């Protein structure tokens, strides 16, 4: 088995989908000859020709709206938004059409497509290149929203997204593009919607997704040295949400921290925390605590480390899960979430 | 850039017109277009009589509370009938909320056309069966879909084309710009018909655009363009027909601006007296497309009283049938709310469906 | 005191702001001669001239982007988006500029402006005219988000929004435009950010905002007949959030239902529920329960009553707040949020 | 539409050029424009020498790890220097990330120009003090701001104007369309300068647009337009100067397309060999704006070796100063993250500030 990066896994997923299904078209800004600014589409035009993988004019609403029409005509578009914040011009097309055409036509028109969005930070990118924009999509009924945290998942989830009968916003955590794993890329046709338990534990559950999964894993590792046995759930699919796995885990551990890189206020972690306390209230020994970025525009590269939730911020939250009855002077004021 | 390329892309300096307001023939047909035949004009006339009757009936249905809202096509029938007439069976139409008459002319069941406007589900017909996209509400978004579908046809090697309808106001939206550009770059077989009816709700064209005319937008994308008297059915058929033929045979996109007028208010909920005077409306009544076409066809001896009566009767039958079928409230099953959000409801939607079922049972009990 | 509708109150607020501050400009689609499709700007062009209240070309990104420039030039734009879903074309301008220019320039450029968004349903509107779009704005740091529930609040909150040094998305619940109240319109310069307790009660807290406030009030009235004393909190300002009022209420009552008209998944109610359980965990006798619309595109007029959370749905939720130890067969499976 | 109105709005069929590639004078100046004076050309030359030195230094700083990323202006200096030179003190410039040389020429402190690109806060200068908007990253969004600010000037009765810069690729965005339209409808004193450098990252113009040239987009909005040899400083000064004068005196917006070329890769992180060949780059090297202007000024006897040396020395001083000041990491206070999200931090941000303070103390301790 070879060490495969997430970028390679995504490239392989596109390549295999293009090979197996001639309806698949890959397009966007700079995805052709250049192979994308992150090289996720590297070599696809050379292998499949300009008809299958091509550059478009520079207009994101145009790309998504054009994809809607191609999907109506029987094609299966897989489009790339170059960066998270540069998908915003397409927001009306996504929210008012991509998400709603099936419902509007009572299933007569379905427009399966995949909108790939490289998202989140941690790569020293400047403003507009590091937004955690998942919340805009998860709050829009009719979209599925998926985000991998490992190369193996990147491959299988992207294949599943392309095969899915519904439109999928596929969020790629940029900082993990170069993360590697010894894995064979395998697609097992499992439908979207299942979380994965990345690490079993009995003392508390860390729920994470995308870029925060490695942070949660690292935190669990450090906590283990302190004798705390943390379970880590990788959501993988934000919509549909895997209540079953999440609820079972928290009912078992009785404590829960939700980790997200996004700004915290009204972020996706709010939904996770709200659901968990609704469904596990009597199993909980402490409130569900959220850990995330601050409620600020993404900061400049020189300050992003202060903004991003790291292992320490996660472990601080774990500390507040009231494992003992001894009061902790730091938190008696109760001002902090 | 050579002058001839530029000239080819620019529209005629004045709108193409084949019939004068009094129905007489305007001599000479601009190069590149062909005068429609008398049978073509007769077919359009018949559909226009029926379309106008449909429109009046729909307006009446709003007063009877059977339609929530209706944006009338009255005055714009030359555009809308021509739009339907130039379509082949394999072509697609991308309409807006304003284009009910075009849909009826295309053959969509009038009740299905009005589904959205009566408060029922948002698209009453099967778009693929009739090759008509859902009537689009978010302005200008549909022209991108039209462009994508046109590209799909071209990729599949079909000799078909797409006709996308849009209003003058909606040309100000960014999506219109992006669609024209995509269409040109991908040489998509799509014709954009701007029905310039002078207003976007209350906003007159003079506050919408400072262009010499909207057709002058084409050249900025390398898209051929034309401006037409939008109340002249013959001119509309000639220009749209040519544009669609060109598109079907690989000639690429085309932008047509039709100068027309919305004789009614924006919708039945709108009060047009707040922003335009009757004087103006009266002026446009003189340019009404229906009497103009009728006069012309009678003048050339092609249309008889009998023909007119036959068309009117057909219109009455359609109106009566529409009245009758719209006279009952459709029964929508609340449980259907969850059916088509996704191909298969998510677990969350399944739970919510159960919740609604419980609520409904409680309300019954 | 005269009965004043919310529409009249909003009109008066614009009129008074235009009178008092010559920097204020009101513009958008059909807001001039027509006075807006909801007549909120009725008579303003006649009174203040086309220079102060005017129609723009039909382009929402254009309206907001143009407002950004006017604000940079010292004006104070108050723009109207005709309906909720028709603000989506402006999403990039709002999320990437309106929300971030102050931060980007370290305060050197501030662009106070108000973006008025008529939102939510209940008026028999067709698709795209009834979206509960508040979540997109509350999840975007740098924006303030405000929504009135009464005519008096409509007046004072809109005045405060116009006076605020930050950009404010002002969400107007369409179905309350015609709701009336005997009130004098008074602007007391109170800064944005305070919730209001609309009804005091001791058994449980209903937290609502905008179109859901009258529903919550009605539910409290019905519950009172059954001997249940519910407190109703009207949030008024979603950002900034009034933790103080909310937390104090729930700590007092020990039970909480969050009512929102929006689709539930990742809606703003998720944030409210997550915060409440974080801050009131040990005061809670039952999970915080959310009540809202379903996770579907806004349905057609003929079905909206089945979708919208009404008094019954709220009372069903209150029923589940575990007031007694007797098990309720309906909810033993624990599947429902 | 009268033919003369249309002709007035259309650009010249070929780019306006006043200096040939070899620096010789192209005879005749298109009506409406005035040849820049020799002192104007000399001033531009000096700034161009300095600007080019700045650009080279910035690229060098990326290699030394002192700049995270730098999108070079190399090759586009005639556009960027002219853009700065035609501005009066009261005018505003709306630049993109590509326009660092224009900012330096405008007088913005070079270190402040590079703040964004070194990973510090996103706008290093006070926009109001220098009358330069933040360098804009989301493509085409800034042209709407420019239009709004131009309208603000007009409303206040100022005789000033705005110059908005944009790339060829970005003209495909809807915001560009909306800005041209708003500018025309509101007669805003704004000039749009499209630096058509042939590529949007890797995408060549042929995949971006099928228009005869981008300047032909103007007429679709009723905006006067022109195309210019973007490597001819004299032509750029003439056309931009005229456009700005017109705007200042109430003549409304103007669209200028400059045909130029990006001699470097998109940024230092880009590999241009993946999408264009050296042949093409070499061809454009022959059209380099700096030697062309220099040759011309020497030919007419206006520029001496001494002048050139003086400008180069000024460039070296600027580069040395820049190197030195960029050689230290700025110290950013993490607590400043919360300072300017709102005028006053919300209670929630105040809590988060406390949390960060605790974290930072823990890390120290
Ligand atoms: C994106 C968007 N913005 C605003 C609206 C609200 N709206 C509906 S119709 C209309 C005017 C449209 O004018 P025009 O394009 O000229 O078409 P007409 O109604 O005249 O046929 C407006 C502003 C909308 N439907 N979509
Ligand atoms: C809305 C948006 N989409 C995509 C990008 C990513 N991007 C940055 S530069 C660029 C190419 C721009 O090309 P052009 O406008 O020709 O300017 P140039 O870089 O050539 O000066 C792209 C696609 C962006 N910054 N903003
Ligand atoms: Mg119109
Ligand atoms: Mg370029």
Explain what this protein looks like in three dimensions:
- Chain A is of the alpha/beta class and 337 residues long.
- Chain A folds into two domains: 3-182, 3-Layer(aba) Sandwich (Rossmann fold), CATH 3.40.50; 196-325, Rossmann fold, CATH 3.40.50.920.
- In chain A, 34% of the residues lie in helices and 19% in strands.
- Chain A contains twelve helices and 14 strands.
- Chain A has helices spanning 6-20, 44-48, 60-72, 91-98, 101-104, 134-138, 151-163, 213-225, 243-253, 268-280, 304-307, 311-319; strands at residues 3-5, 24-28, 53-55, 76-80, 114-119, 144-146, 168-173, 180-182, 196-199, 204-208, 230-234, 237-239, 256-263, 289-293.
- A seven-stranded mixed beta sheet of chain A has the order 3-2-4-5-7-6-12, sandwiched between helices. In chain A, strands 9-11-10-13-14 form a five-stranded mixed beta sheet, sandwiched between helices. Chain A has a two-stranded antiparallel ribbon with strand order 1-8.
- In chain A, helix 1 (6-20) runs parallel beside helix 7, helix 3 packs parallel to helix 4 (91-98) and helix 9 (243-253) packs across helix 10.
- Chain B is of the alpha/beta class and 365 residues long.
- Chain B folds into two domains: 3-332, Thiamin diphosphate (ThDP)-binding fold, Pyr/PP domains (Rossmann fold, 3-Layer(aba) Sandwich), CATH 3.40.50; 334-365.
- Chain B is 46% helix and 9% strand.
- In chain B, the strands form two sheets. Chain B has a five-stranded parallel beta sheet with strand order 1-2-3-7-6. A two-stranded antiparallel sheet of chain B has the order 4-5.
- In chain B, strand 6, helix 11 and strand 7 (254-259) form a beta-alpha-beta unit.
- In chain B, helix 2 packs across helix 3 and helix 3 packs parallel to helix 4 (100-106).
- The longest helix of chain B is centred in the first third of the chain and has 26 residues, at 38-63.
- The mean pLDDT of chain B is 97.
- The chains are: A alpha/beta (337), B alpha/beta (365).
- Chains in contact: A-B, A-C, A-D, B-C, B-D, C-D.
- The complex binds thiamine diphosphate (TPP) (2 copies) and magnesium ion (2 copies).
- Residues 167-169, 197, 199-200 of chain B line the site of one magnesium ion (MG).
């Amino acid at each position: 088995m070879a060490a495969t990066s997430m970028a390679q896994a995504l490239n392989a997923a596109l390549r295999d989908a293009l090979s197996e299904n001639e309806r698949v078209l890959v397009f966007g800004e700079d995805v052709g000859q250049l192979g994308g600014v992150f090289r996720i589409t590297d070599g696809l035009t050379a292998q499949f020709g300009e008809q299958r993988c091509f550059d478009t004019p520079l207009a994101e609403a145009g790309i998504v709206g054009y994809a809607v029409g191609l999907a109506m005509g029987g094609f299966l578009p897989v489009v790339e938004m170059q960066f998270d914040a540069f998908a915003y011009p397409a927001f009306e097309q996504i929210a008012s059409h991509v998400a709603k055409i099936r419902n509007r036509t009572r299933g007569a028109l379905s427009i399966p497509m995949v909108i790939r969005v490289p998202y989140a930070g941690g790569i020293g990118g400047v403003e507009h290149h590091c937004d955690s924009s998942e919340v805009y999509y998860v709050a829009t009924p009719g979209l599925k929203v998926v985000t991998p945290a490992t190369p193996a998942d990147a491959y299988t989830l992207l294949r599943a997204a392309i095969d899915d009968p519904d439109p999928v916003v596929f969020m790629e955590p940029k900082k993990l593009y170069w993360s590697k794993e010894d894995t064979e890329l395998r697609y097992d046709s499992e439908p979207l919607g299942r979380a994965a338990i990345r690490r079993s534990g009995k003392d508390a559950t860390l729920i994470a997704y995308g870029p925060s999964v490695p942070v949660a894993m690292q935190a669990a590792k450090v906590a283990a040295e302190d004798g705390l046995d943390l379970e880590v759930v990788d959501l993988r699919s934000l919509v549909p949400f895997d209540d079953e796995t999440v609820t079972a885990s928290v009912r078992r551990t009785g404590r829960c921290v939700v980790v997200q890189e996004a700004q915290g206020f009204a972020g996706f972690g709010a939904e996770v925390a709200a659901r968990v306390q609704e469904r596990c209230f009597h199993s909980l020994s402490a409130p569900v605590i959220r850990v995330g970025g601050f409620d600020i525009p993404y900061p400049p590269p020189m300050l992003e480390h202060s903004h991003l939730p790291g292992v320490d911020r996660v472990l601080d939250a774990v500390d507040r899960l009231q494992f003992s009855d001894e009061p902790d002077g730091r938190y008696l004021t109760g001002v902090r979430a | 850039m050579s002058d001839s390329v530029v000239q080819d892309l620019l529209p005629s300096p004045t709108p193409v017109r084949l019939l004068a307001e009094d129905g007489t023939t305007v001599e000479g047909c601009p190069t590149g277009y062909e005068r429609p035949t008398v049978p073509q004009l007769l077919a359009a006339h018949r559909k226009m009589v029926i379309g106008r009757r449909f429109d009046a009936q729909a307006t009446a249905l709003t007063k009877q509370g059977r339609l929530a809202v209706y944006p009338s096509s009255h005055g714009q029938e030359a555009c809308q009938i021509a739009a339907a007439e130039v379509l082949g069976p394999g072509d697609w139409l991308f309409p807006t909320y304003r284009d009910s008459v075009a849909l009826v002319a295309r053959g969509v069941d009038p009740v299905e056309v009005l589904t959205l406007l009566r408060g029922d589900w948002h698209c009453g017909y099967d778009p693929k069966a009739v090759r008509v996209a859902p009537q689009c509400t978010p302005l200008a978004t549909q022209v991108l879909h039209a462009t994508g579908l046109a590209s799909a046809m071209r990729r599949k090697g079909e000799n078909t084309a797409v006709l996308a309808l849009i209003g003058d106001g909606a040309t100000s939206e960014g999506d219109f710009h992006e669609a024209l550009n995509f269409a040109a770059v991908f040489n998509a077989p799509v014709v954009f018909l701007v029905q310039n009816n002078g207003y976007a709700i209350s906003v007159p064209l003079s506050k919408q655009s400072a262009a010499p005319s909207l057709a002058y937008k084409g050249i900025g994308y390398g898209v051929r363009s034309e401006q037409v008297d939008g109340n002249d059915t013959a001119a509309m058929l000639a220009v749209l027909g040519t544009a669609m033929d060109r598109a079907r045979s690989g000639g690429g996109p085309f932008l047509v601006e039709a100068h027309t007028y919305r004789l009614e208010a924006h919708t039945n909920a709108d009060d047009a007296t707040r922003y335009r005077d009757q004087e103006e409306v009266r002026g446009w009544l003189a340019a009404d497309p229906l009497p103009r076409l009728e006069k012309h066809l009678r003048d050339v001896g092609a249309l008889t009283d009998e023909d007119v009566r036959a068309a009117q009767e057909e219109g009455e039958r359609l109106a009566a049938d529409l009245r009758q079928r719209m006279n009952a409230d459709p029964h929508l099953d609340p449980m259907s709310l969850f059916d088509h959000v996704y191909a298969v409801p998510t677990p969350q939607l399944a739970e919510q469906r159960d919740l609604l079922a419980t609520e409904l049972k409680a309300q019954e009990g």
